[in-house]
Amino acid sequence: MDREINIIGGGISGLACAIILCQNDYKVNVYEKGSYIGKRFNEDWQGLENWSEKIDVLKQVESYGIDLSFEYEPLSELVIHYSGKLKTIRGKNACYLVRRGGTEGCLDKALFEQAEKLGVKIHLNYKQENNLPAQVNAKGPRNANILARGIKFNTNLDCGYHMAFGKDIARGFYSYLLVKNGHGTIATVFGRKSAPRSEEFLKNTINYFSDFLDEKELSAGKKFGGYGRFEIKKNYYDEKGTMFIGEAGGFQDYLWGFGMRYAFQSANLAARSIIENESYNDLIKEHLLKKLKHSKRNRLISEIMGSLMYPIIYYTFTSSKNPLQFLNMCYK
Asked: Which residues cross the membrane (predicted)?
């Protein structure tokens, strides 16, 4: 049996898969086109969701043999906004905030360091991946259908976590403001069809959250863009037998856009497929496909209801005694 594995892409899923395989005595090479790991991101805060399954996501990640050596903050209180209304909802460890990028404390950097320490060979600035015989494709999304526009800034503001709905700030999705330990991220998330309006959405989002912002701090910040892709594939192997993991496989929530949990899960399933010689398609069908289909259903309902969806989401969250339980039910 060939004990050498090639993985294309050094994001969360690629590095997680490499770590798991290396711990099972495989020789692993990761080929990353960027000049450093985490280059796609800007040290901005992102959410690692913890509501779609009963097991805590950090315990799940640890069960794969991955160290929690990155900065994370449990989010148990979130201010929900809609059309000038706001209400704080609570739920223990509803989500974990992590920073993405190539600096100390960021998730990407921590995975890189663990992989290197284990002996994974990481090849940066690699441009010829199409000619490389690889077992795992973790190259990230192509033909993005979910986009983000935001600003990362330093701030003296108190910590706070806000999510807002509205067609003028994020058509079909949401906007958010996260402030933690002197770092702030404000962003708007929207579909590809609304891409020409990205600056308008960002400006409207900033105006909406103006009471919670310091204008000087924000103007000194750095703008960024993000992208992702959700997709349900018929086959999670390509024509060469390479497995798609993470966003390369379209593993991202259709309704909210969260994808990091899927990145870890699909990485683990690909590693299991290699180690135990199981069908990757069968593993995806058993462990992830149902949840993906339900998130797609949630997105279709949202699009059919149009602007009526915003008040429904707001009032459902703010009136529920257990918002996390409601969210969990949406994936069953």
From this structure: none
